[in-house]
Amino acid sequence: MHLNSRSYNVLSALLLSSFPNLSSCAETASSSLSRPEIIVAPIQPAKAHLATTALSTPRNRTCHVSSLGSGRDDSPALLAAIKSCNNGGVVQLNETLYTISTALDIKSLQSIDFNISGTIQFSSNITYWTANSFKYVFQNSSSFWQWSGNDINWYGGGTIDGNGQPWWDAFAKDSTLARPILFVMNGVTGGSISGLKMKSPPNWFNLITGSQDVLISGMTLTAVTSNSNPVKNSDGWDTYLSSHITIQNSTILNTDDCVSFKPNSSSIIVQNLACSGSHGISVGSLGQYVGVTDIVEDVYIYNNTLSNASDAARIKVWAGAVPNSDGSLPYGAGGGSGVVRNITYDKMSVSSVDYAIELTSCYMQTTANCNAYPTKMTIQDVVFKNFVGVASKKHDPKVGTLVCSSATKFVIDITGNTRNIINMPTELEELVDFISHGNTQVRTIAVENLIPYSLSQPSIFKTNELLPVKDLKLLVRDYKQIAKDAMTILINLSTDKEVLEYLASDKEFINTLFNKLTNPAEPNANLIAMLLANLAKWDDLKHIIALERPAPKELTSNNRAIDQLMDLFVKGADGTYNKDADYDYLAYLFADLAKHEEGRKYFLTKQEYDGVVPLTKMTVFTEHKSDIRRKGVASTIKNVAFEIESHPSFLSEDEINILPYLLLPIMGNEEFDEEETMAMLPDLQLLPPDKERDSDPVIMQTHVETLMLLTTTREGRDIMREIKVYPIIRELHLKVDHDEMREACERLVQVLMRDEEGEEKVDAGMKTLARRSDKPSSSPKPFSSQANGIAGSWASQDAEDPASDSDDDKIVEV
């Protein structure tokens, strides 16, 4: 953020309010801090887990978290300790009880441990959690908190308590209630959780998503109701878009899957578990969504005990999409494709289980529908062996069931042996080698089939000093379809820091992307714009602001690369340059460039070749039909607004004239009284009766935060009072249910209401905006990437922290 000496002190207050109270964190130096030793046995992964090697960074200090007690929220103290002990410390939670009452997005962790010997309990405020928990698209799930980062370990013998009983009671009355998952790893690379107890989750115990190299050992999971309302959906562990996971030596008492391998889970070991009351150790369900490819492969399940369960070993995939009565395809009711491959259930002891083995490709469907619409999933190389024990009498005399909707989709072995590919190269690794094959058809098949793995198992592309990534860079210049698929993989891989720097620092590759992007006949131009937007996360890519390159004759800009990008962006709005591209994603690139002083200076400087300030070329798109374009433009404007000395230009009607472009998107068709209307900007008067405000509350929030930045100067505050910004913000606050946006409105009004030195009262007509706490408003928070292999990881935005008190003083990253 850029500030100068003329900045109004409201920004200082906002900056201070952004940080938690640090008083509860005691930082202590320590020369020797170690976590419990975890031995992975008897089955071992091909590559040792980071937590079991000396490669994990030694911890050298501790930060103690003090509990406030009496049910008060300990979230600020926890965040303060994390901030102090990140990068080489241990956070100690050793008091009797900690209460968490705030949704926590705990990200960017690096080389940090959590020694939990006390109890962490979540508050039972269902109204708050329903509105503020993190929402995921997959199976309509949500969570109290989510963790991400590298080299993270949790241990200590303590308890994480989800306080689930109130949720189970409420769910008994309202089965649509979305209940939070107790513990979510959402992007953890290299970590372990061991020796802890978990109890009473409102929903699943654990979700491991977008993660790699995770070791789980010595856990005790318990979900037991205290009344007649049953525990619901208390899966022990669910893996999703994750690989290289080991779950071992744990005890689980629950009412749903003991372990469930959700879409795009691979290279997993589950051993030495004692599961009671569950639905078994399950693959799936898979194939739920039309157009989505689900893959689960290379899973070894060894030496587990299942008792009092509906199933022991279970594989469940959906049938094909069964049309509705009107012929349309229902969403989330089957029809997805994919494969279940190389799954081994070995040495399983069962007691009072209804089915020792259950495999169905007819999940959630009737036999007739399955016959008519067989599954699109393939199941192959599945082995069940060394099962012992006694089944219940529920299905006597049967002890297992296999339901196959297609005779060509299944290759199952119940008696034979399987190779232990946990310690052998997989077909997937061999497929990567075909990226550089001399045969075009082989390359085509290879990159097409590797797309899903760029999301679920990106490590396969990082072998041999990133040789596969190097090959993919070359394929960007290959035939159209190969180039498209290679670009898609690179987009997904570029969320990895190592790959990001490798790609973004290659100036020859950047030049290749520019050449293709500026070609009016380039069919993959939008994908290239996505990739460049991702690469802008690497700070040194800002060199393109000063980069010069010959301009194609079709562009009217000069030889500056940044001007050429701006010209593409403007022409893309109406498709006049490339019929296959709208270049909307360049707005995200501009927003990231505007994080840097050089970028902000560019957007504010009149260009010699056309005499236009670049930012004014973007402001006209604040009401564009494309959500992507509007969001990127809004973020760019906000980031540029950190140049405080340029605020007079922002506010001048003869220069940037930003206010109409910020206010129109947040206005609807409401009517104001005559005095208010006549004082407003001319563009804001007499709006049509069908005028609608922006459909995305996050974009509107960004506009309000930009207005807040413009109040940094006295001139900005006076102008906003004069043109009656307050009634516009008042109506926005009243009409749109979105907590973060409404908080931004409240902060802006507080500043506008503040008395100025030398004046008695700035505006007696303004009132503090009242909150409405009865309407939850949080927008769902999707996973960073979808499982269908499309290019989506560019959208894994470094979103502003939803737990922060103040977002309007932050540079926006998109």
UniProtKB/TrEMBL annotation:
Keywords, sorted A to Z: Cell wall biogenesis/degradation, Disulfide bond, Glycoprotein, Glycosidase, Hydrolase, Repeat, Secreted, Signal
Pfam families: DUF383 (PF04063), DUF384 (PF04064), Glyco_hydro_28 (PF00295)
Active site location: 279
Signal peptide: 1-25
Residue ranges of domain Protein HGH1 C-terminal in the record: 706-760
Gene3D superfamilies: Single-stranded right-handed beta-helix, Pectin lyase-like (2.160.20.10)
GO molecular function terms noted in the UniProt entry: galacturan 1,4-alpha-galacturonidase activity; polygalacturonase activity
InterPro entries xref list: ARM-type_fold, Glyco_hydro_28, Pectin_lyas_fold, Pectin_lyase_fold/virulence, Protein_HGH1_C, Protein_HGH1_N
Region (Disordered): 758-814
PROSITE patterns registered for this protein in UniProt: POLYGALACTURONASE (PS00502)
Extent of Acidic residues compositional bias: 798-808
Catalyses which reaction(s): [(1->4)-alpha-D-galacturonosyl](n) + H2O = alpha-D-galacturonate + [(1->4)-alpha-D-galacturonosyl](n-1)
Principal subcellular localization: secreted
Stated name of the protein: galacturonan 1,4-alpha-galacturonidase
Biased composition (Low complexity): 776-785
Keyword Disulfide bond: yes
Localization per Swiss-Prot or TrEMBL: Secreted
Residues covered by the Protein HGH1 N-terminal domain: 517-701
Example of a GO biological process term: carbohydrate metabolic process
Family: Belongs to the glycosyl hydrolase 28 family. Belongs to the HGH1 family.
CC annotations in GO: extracellular region
